[in-house]
């Protein structure tokens, strides 16, 4: 067998070297040997407009009027959003706003209460 580590996602022993990346043929997971197998993804920190660290379940307030795409509605400044959920991507907050429903927000337009 090879001296390459098992896949960190599915524990497959059939990993192979593809240049600077290691690849698992069973689950298609790719990682680099130097990164420590996904530790860099787990350490992503989401901060609000004031630099406070946000976590799942926090309550935040909108600091700027935000137009709702595809609608004529506007989320007004000072709108309180409870029980946020952090997600990956450009809009890193997933939440439910009263009268608007489910939305995604950017953390730069909110502050922690």
Automatic annotation (TrEMBL):
One Pfam family in the UniProt entry: Zn_Ribbon_YjdM
Superkingdom to which the source organism belongs: Bacteria
Domain Protein YjdM C-terminal residue range list: 46-113
Domain Protein YjdM N-terminal: 4-32
Family of this protein: Belongs to the YjdM family.
Name this polypeptide is given: Alkylphosphonate utilization protein
Organism: Paenibacillus marchantiophytorum
């Amino acid at each position: 067998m090879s001296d390459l580590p098992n896949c960190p996602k599915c524990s497959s022993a059939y990993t192979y070297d593809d240049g600077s990346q290691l690849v698992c043929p069973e689950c298609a997971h790719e990682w680099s040997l130097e990164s420590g197998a996904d530790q860099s993804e787990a350490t992503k920190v989401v901060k609000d407009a004031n630099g406070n660290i946000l976590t799942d379940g926090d309550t935040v307030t909108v600091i700027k009027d935000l137009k709702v795409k595809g609608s004529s509605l506007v989320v007004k400044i000072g709108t309180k959003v409870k029980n946020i959920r952090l997600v990956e991507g450009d809009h890193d907050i997933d939440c439910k706003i009263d009268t608007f429903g489910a939305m995604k927000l950017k953390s730069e337009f909110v502050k922690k209460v």
